[in-house]
Hints:
The complex is a heterodimer of chains A (107) and B (120).
Chain A: E1 4-7, E2 10-13, E3 19-25, E4 33-38, E5 45-49, E6 53-54, E7 62-67, E8 70-75, E9 85-90, E10 97-98, E11 102-106
Parallel strand pairs in A: 2-11
Antiparallel strand pairs in A: 1-3, 3-8, 4-5, 4-9, 5-6, 7-8, 9-10, 9-11
Chain B: E1 3-6, E2 10-12, E3 18-25, E4 33-39, E5 45-51, E6 59-60, E7 68-73, E8 78-83, E9 92-99, E10 107-110, E11 114-118
Parallel strand pairs in B: 2-11
Antiparallel strand pairs in B: 1-3, 3-8, 4-5, 4-9, 5-6, 7-8, 9-10, 9-11
Amino acid sequence: DIQMTQSPSSLSASVGDRVTITCRASQSISTYLNWYQQKPGRAPTLLIYGASSLQSGVPSRFSGGGSGTDFTLTISSLQPEDFATYHCQQSYNTPWTFGQGTKVEIK
Amino acid sequence: QVQLVQSGPELRKPGSSVKVSCKASGDTFNTYTYNWVRQAPGQGLEWMGRLVPIFGSPTYSHHFQGRVTLTADDSTGTAYMTLSSLRSEDTAVYYCSRGVVISPYYFDYWGQGTLVTVSS
């Protein structure tokens, strides 16, 4: 199975901050990397697919990058509604696997 | 708009089975994959398997060692997940999610989740 490791596991930030979350795969996955946002008690929602493509309706302050084994999710200016947990997921090989999640909290 | 609506919470005893449903609306049912992902309390997301109704044959994660069965009913636009030989570690929220059938694969819509509690 492909292991996905996110860092950090959690972070504290203020509204307006630029935030970057990283995701590392245990082997090369090309650009088969997706990012999801999950708020407490809610299902995840898709933010980014194919490493860098923004899902329709997602604000442009979210962006994704990377290829191979190293990927990033960046929020250019953190908004109050962005405090949530973020998950990366590889879709290169089944079983599809997720990172352990990064919780973004209010400083 | 696309909606996935799952069945309600379940309480089961160890060793029994549970069947969770996921009714899709707002788009053509059988041209997507239907994936099941679970999340134990305070934990991350774990993919269990997927089914493409138009093809019929499911793909399962080996982590469930034959305990999971995915089916679908085209006539009602409903996907089902059955998990058998339940143990306490299966206590989790179970999500269905719609996936695209062509690369790059991703889950674009999710159900609201179904809490399955396994307890004696």
